[in-house]
Design brief:
This protein is α/β, with parallel strands linked by helices and 374 residues long. It starts with a strand and ends in a 17-residue tail after the last strand. It has one domain: Rossmann fold (3-Layer(aba) Sandwich), CATH 3.40.50. The chain has helices spanning 16-28, 33-42, 48-51, 64-67, 69-85, 103-111, 118-121, 131-140, 225-241, 286-295, 306-313, 315-323, 328-342; strands at 4-7, 31-32, 92-97, 122-127, 147-149, 161-166, 175-180, 183-191, 197-206, 220-223, 243-252, 261-264, 267-269, 279-281, 284-285, 299-305, 351-357. The model is unreliable at 1-15 (pLDDT under 50). Helices cover 35% and strands 25% of the residues. Strands 3, 4, 5, 6, 11, 15, 16 and 17 form an 8-stranded mixed sheet that branches. Strands 2, 7, 8, 9 and 10 form a 5-stranded antiparallel sheet that branches. It has a 4-stranded mixed sheet with strand order 1-13-12-14.
Length: 374
Amino acid sequence: MVAEPRDRPLKGDVVDAAEWLRELLAREGPMPLSRFMALALLAPGRGYYATRDPLGAHGDFLTAPEISQCFGELIGAALAQAWLERGAPAPVLLVELGPGRGTLLVDLLRATARVRGFHAALSLHLVEASAALRAVQAERLRSFAPHFHDRLEDVPEGPPLLLVANEFLDALPIRQLVRTHDGWRERLVAVDAKGRIGFLLSPWTVADPCGGNEYPVGTVLELAPAREALVAEAARRVVRTGGLALFIDYAKPGPEGDTLQAVHGHRRVDPFSQPGRVDLSARVDFTALVRAARREGAAVFGPIAQGLFLERLGIKLRLARLLAGKSAELAARLERGVHRLIDPEAMGTLFKVLALSRPDEPIPPGFLASERVP
């Protein structure tokens, strides 16, 4: 999720999720940040993703597929190549986690329409929490008869797996721990006497999460058990059935640092300003995901920079072909989109790509043998 780094107040009607969460906190007391995020984002009938389409110029943020059609096209080329290199199995499960409006899949499927046998082999499965977005996805992808699921665990097993998760992990709930003079304490979310929601430090210390590593007092660590469990599940499936899983997300170099952010109307806002009306996310610690996937026996490649990955897949060549015969205005828009995806000052290095495969299968497209985690 990409937004401008500026704060601004929210305007508009209050969604009942905010009052509901205040009442819940007042009644039950402080809760871990992970639970607050899960409720604010996914509570049925109230949560942010459960009640709206947040994408696009009139929404709250843009993701790579909306920025340039080249993104989904190249992901499609990579998955189709991986399918061919694995012997073109049929059937094969094509799974996207958090498909948004289905834009990535629309571009992916258009780009792979001439790969002989690929579409006939596909069984399309979408993991999506939002009823509003499911309706959009069902309409845009109706010719592929998509199956919808609440969790990756609900996707049937058996055939090989081709999975893509773009900007999905950053919205999964996190915990935050703070190093104090007497140990680590968890940040809780609470409501004060004036009805304001904010952080409260737990009065109890928790077990050392660092394996003996020393951090200065005041250090914030972000832990994401839900992310690790999901990546472990994807790794387990890839090892068991074969295939490829690609995770693309907003990265951080390790667990240190408070990266929780909220976005509304393409601007950053206070994460507690209007829960249920704002998108909540945190950067992804890929080192923890690598460990989770390796424990399941997967071959892990990366993470590498998104810009490098897309350039290896041929994004500049694809752009050159798209520009042929286009008006100056359309050509400039196409160029701006690709530039945003690959430029180091934009999304090119901020976003990382991680690939999981079975150890005996070919190197994932876009990666080098030397990028496999030992």
